[in-house]
């Protein structure tokens, strides 16, 4: 009986936690009905609409909610947004997942206080240079799109902590990526990358790089400058050249491994567990007891 009560309590707490997105303005109602929100537009801080057909008139009226800080418009078949939404003076979070944009609207430049932008699975092929004007942006999530090129202006996002670009068509990262001095997590798996830029060594706060499922054949020597790096995933690549000095990355964590090989004076652990399911994954972890230069 006590066990059942405990399980019920845990489920209730889980449901309560999941009902509140971590980016919502705490203590403020999350509106999920546009008509209701329009009736209280001066008191709307959180608006979350999913699978709704929104007219241009609807979108312009959302742009009149001057206190709005969290806006999520998921799977609303949007192809563009009026500048009024980007000009919302308090907007901090913008979630536009599963829409039909082919580009991030240039009006994004008006969102001066924006901290979090997510446009997952939106058919985006173009990231405009205006993205560099989001000087307060901390998280940029653009996975599952068709992006082939990132503008050099990406390097202006000095506060960026998390950059997620998996499942795109990137063949290279711009050198300006190395200017992201606060970047902690870089997720670039499932692209067409052949290498990582030498400038990546300038991202001194990088903790995690996930670059699996690309076409990477070598990694830059500057990687050894990333003293805070804990995870480097190069699975499903053709990476057989590693620079010397990787053993200086003392924070790289251990991982289970199956066999090893040596190249360029560095022992690399290659996972071969259940080939065809997990593939031939390569991990580099410098504090493994058998890792040496």
Short description:
The protein has 293 residues and is of the alpha/beta class. The chain has helices at 2-18, 34-38, 56-62, 83-86, and strands at 30-31, 46-50, 70-74, 93-95, 116-118, 139-141, 162-164, 185-187, 208-210, 231-233, 260-263, 266-271, 281-283. A hairpin with a 2-residue loop joins strand 11 and strand 12.
Description:
This protein has helices at 2-18, 34-38, 56-62, 83-86, and strands spanning 30-31, 46-50, 70-74, 93-95, 116-118, 139-141, 162-164, 185-187, 208-210, 231-233, 260-263, 266-271, 281-283. It is an alpha/beta fold and 293 residues long. The strands form two sheets. The chain has a ten-stranded parallel beta sheet. Helix 4 links the parallel strand 3 (70-74) and strand 4 (93-95). It is elongated. Residues 7-20 and 254-293 have low confidence and may be disordered.
């Amino acid at each position: 009986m006590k066990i059942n009560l405990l399980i019920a309590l845990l489920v209730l707490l889980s449901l309560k936690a999941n009902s509140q997105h971590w980016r919502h303005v705490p203590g403020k109602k999350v509106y999920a009905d546009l008509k209701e929100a329009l009736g209280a537009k001066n008191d709307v801080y959180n608006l979350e609409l999913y699978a709704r057909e929104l007219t241009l008139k609807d979108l312009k009226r959302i742009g009149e909610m001057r206190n709005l800080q969290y806006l999520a418009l998921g799977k609303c078949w949007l192809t563009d947004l009026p500048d009024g939404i980007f000009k919302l003076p308090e907007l901090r979070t913008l979630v536009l997942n599963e829409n039909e944009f082919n580009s991030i609207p240039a009006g994004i430049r008006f969102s001066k206080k924006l901290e979090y932008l997510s446009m997952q699975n939106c058919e985006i092929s173009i990231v405009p240079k205006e993205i560099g004007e989001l000087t307060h942006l901390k998280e940029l999530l653009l996975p599952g799109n068709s992006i082939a090129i990132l503008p050099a202006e990406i390097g202006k996002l000095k506060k960026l902590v998390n950059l997620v670009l998996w499942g795109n068509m990137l063949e290279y990262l711009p050198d300006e990526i190395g200017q992201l001095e606060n970047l902690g997590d870089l997720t670039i798996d499932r692209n067409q990358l052949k290498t990582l830029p030498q400038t990546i060594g300038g991202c001194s706060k990088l903790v995690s790089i996930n670059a699996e499922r690309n076409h990477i054949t070598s990694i830059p020597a500057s990687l050894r400058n990333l003293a805070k790096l804990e995870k480097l995933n190069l699975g499903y690549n053709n990476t057989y050249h590693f620079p010397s000095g990787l053993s200086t990355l003392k924070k790289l964590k251990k991982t289970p491994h199956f066999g090893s090989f040596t190249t360029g004076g560095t022992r690399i652990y290659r996972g071969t567990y259940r080939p065809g399911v997990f593939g031939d994954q390569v991990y580099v972890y410098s504090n493994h007891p058998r890792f040496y230069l």
